[in-house]
UniProtKB/TrEMBL annotation:
Protein name per the record: Capsular polysaccharide biosynthesis protein
Family: Belongs to the CpsC/CapA family.
Coiled coil: none
Entries under PANTHER family matching the protein: FERRIC ENTEROBACTIN TRANSPORT PROTEIN FEPE, TYROSINE-PROTEIN KINASE
A Pfam family it matches: Wzz
Keyword annotations: Cell membrane, Membrane, Transmembrane, Transmembrane helix
Lineage, top ranks: Bacteria, Bacillati, Bacillota, Clostridia, Eubacteriales
InterPro entries tied to this protein: Bact_polysacc_biosynth/exp, LPS_length_determ_N
Subcellular location: Cell membrane
Length: 228
């Protein structure tokens, strides 16, 4: 236990002696993370439209059984995949006259069922906020068209149309600053330990007598590092 305490105290002495360097490096890395985030990462905007998936064949049913609920959930999951299909993508590209391939378009979209409900969110992420808004609403309309072609009836109802995003969804400046701060702190502490362990000079007379078990037969010149 005593040896562990001595080792920890030595580590703390190393850190305290180079505290200025640690602070400067940490601040520099944090500032670098902020500069990269603000000037070099293009902001992206996310727009979401919420649709309701219902089965009109059960429209007169007063109560719902467990089987009905399970059927609705599977139906929502199915429509989440249909929304990402090539058929829907091509319909959106055609209606909005987008200069995008199907692969590029599918890389912009995502779908997420809302828990165990009949609601489905269709999201579009783009560097153009107006484009994200237009594509999200057109996705819902195209899904309605494809639904009618597949089932002969439209069971997709647009609940909350997409709005023009007020601000970017990414990058997250605060998160990137926090990551930069942690990385800067870890890097600076590691650098301090590396510098100390690579320094083989004798700065303390006690090192000769205690660590090397040798008698001290000479005087060691005074150094400011010995007082740190």
């Amino acid at each position: 236990m005593n040896e562990e305490t001595i080792d920890l105290s030595k580590l703390w002495q190393m850190i305290r002696k180079k505290m200025g360097l640690i602070i400067v490096l940490t601040v520099l890395v944090t500032m670098l993370a902020g500069i990269v985030t603000f000037f070099f990462i293009e902001p992206e905007y996310k727009s979401t439209v919420s649709v309701f998936i219902s089965d009109e064949r059960d429209g007169n049913s007063v109560s719902e059984t467990i089987n009905d609920i399970n059927m609705y959930q599977k139906l929502v999951d199915t429509y989440a995949e249909i929304a990402k299909s090539r058929t829907v993508s091509e319909d959106v590209i055609k209606n909005l006259d987008l200069d995008l391939t199907v692969g590029q378009f599918q890389g912009m979209i995502s779908t997420s069922p809302k828990g165990n409900t009949q609601f489905l969110n269709l999201s579009v992420t783009s560097t153009d906020r107006e484009l994200a808004y237009k594509v999200a609403n057109q996705m819902a309309r195209s899904l309605k068209v494809v639904s009618r072609e597949l089932r002969g009836t439209d069971i997709v109802q647009i609940l909350d149309p997409a709005n023009v995003p007020a601000g970017p969804s990414s990058p997250n400046l605060q998160m990137n600053l926090a990551i930069g701060f942690v990385l800067g702190l870890m890097l600076s502490v590691f650098l301090v330990f590396l510098m100390e362990f690579m320094d083989k000079t004798v700065k303390d007379p006690d090192f000769i007598t205690n660590e090397l078990n040798l008698p001290l037969l000479a005087a060691i010149p005074f150094s400011e590092d010995m007082q740190a």
